[in-house]
Protein: FAD dependent oxidoreductase domain-containing protein
Organism: Halobacteriovorax marinus
Amino acid sequence: MGDRQQLIHQVSPLETMVESHINTLIVGGGIVGAGVLRDLSLHGVDCLLVDKKDFSSQTSQSSSKMLHGGIRYLENFDFNLVYEALHEKNLWLKLAPHLVKENRFYLPVFKDSLRPMWMVRVGIFLYDLLSNFQNATRGSATKTETIACIPHIRKENLKGSGIYSDAIVDDGKLTLEVIMDSLENKNAKAISYVSANSIVKSKSGKYTCTLLDELTGIEKVVTCDNLIIATGPFTDQFMKNIPEVKWTDKLLPSKGSHLWIAKADLNLPNPVVLTPKDGRVIFVIPHDDRVLIGTTEEKVEENFFDVTPSKDEIKYLIHNLNEFFPTANIDESKIQSSFAGIRPLVKEDDGANLGKTAREHKVFQPMKGLYVIVGGKLTTFRTMSQEITSLIVRSHNRAYNPDKTKRPLRVRCQYNFFHKPDLSSEIINKIIHRELPRTYDDIRKRRALAQNTDQKIEEYLYKHTI
Ligand SMILES: Cc1cc2nc3c(=O)[nH]c(=O)nc-3n(C[C@H](O)[C@H](O)[C@H](O)COP(=O)(O)OP(=O)(O)OC[C@H]3O[C@@H](n4cnc5c(N)ncnc54)[C@H](O)[C@@H]3O)c2cc1C
């Protein structure tokens, strides 16, 4: 088998695509950087986005894969966040219906649940109210109906369930398509596996930055007028690259893990929301022939790239699955694969408590022309970016139109969670030409969505392209 990291093109895009001066440099190709790139390029601003790894290979492909208002944030009275997120969810159902699908979520309630049935009903009503009654479903089910709708659910002490709607999304492909849509505008460029290092501000007010191609070792020094840092959970580490900024840590990073099991092992027709005794929430979400289970909350201090679930997190998820689905007999041998990501949670002022840490985003502007955006959610990436993009567009004496990004995405990926065509050389060629892979591993893992066990794609790539 060939080297998975083998380059598709031998020449570094730093040599062929990048001028020595860029109006706006965006660092970070997760959903937040992608959203900034799209909005700026739709407003005619020249911009380059770089990511140290493949696009959307970190947090933005490791979420619970929901576009949601966050029903549990109602408990913290985060009404603004829930309102905004529900409206964004309903917008993306229209803008990218191939990637975002509305689903009926069941929240089973037991005699000893922390949230009794009346509270669940009130919460679901409020949730629908905050969506301007645009959510597809709202209601409840009796014990008998719940047992009929949720195979293997624990019958003991079961009272019934609340029903509400949220959307499931292919998070990685949404990010990639937002970047691909931006590139339809001539003034946008995006390059993966390029890190931004040693940033200094010159007397003229421009930023000088050394870009390093992590795959070829080629370096290029560029200047830019605006520098946007959208490095998510890596932001505190990244800001140490700019010595002129006396950055104090703003994040309280928290790892969350998920497991995939086969649908044959837990054949749920709809997503189920489990509420364990510790007050946390675990989503069990059927996707095609698999079921996604997560998430956890574990403190992390270093090595944020490519994180994996710990043994304790796996045990926690399996334990709770068995608590709520006692007859399904799920054990660790049923796990097909797993993944983890770091929530870029912004500290509240005292920074002490993970649970109370803000889920809203924050924008910092430590120096003129330098913007740092952290926190927030996948669901609200479009509105998050507007806080920065509106300032930059207006600084070019142009009118800012917040509705420009309310148009459908123009380019589609070949594969997503809901559409998996048979592999062919035509499809691989389209992926190579449109979906910005730089290595064959990018195609295998993130463009063609091969699972660890899927040898077919690897063999195909080896035979046809290497
Ligand atoms: C377990 C979990 C579950 C979640 N579930 C949901 C959910 O269901 N719904 C929802 O709305 N939100 C959810 N979220 C939140 C959401 O996933 C994140 O808020 C969002 O993905 C963060 O995106 P980002 O672009 O800020 O970060 P990232 O996606 O991590 O992007 C940052 C990028 O910066 C790059 N980078 C770092 N350093 C450098 C450098 N020196 N040079 C160049 N590039 C660099 C990284 O490679 C990375 O690609 C969840 C988060 C977690 C962890």
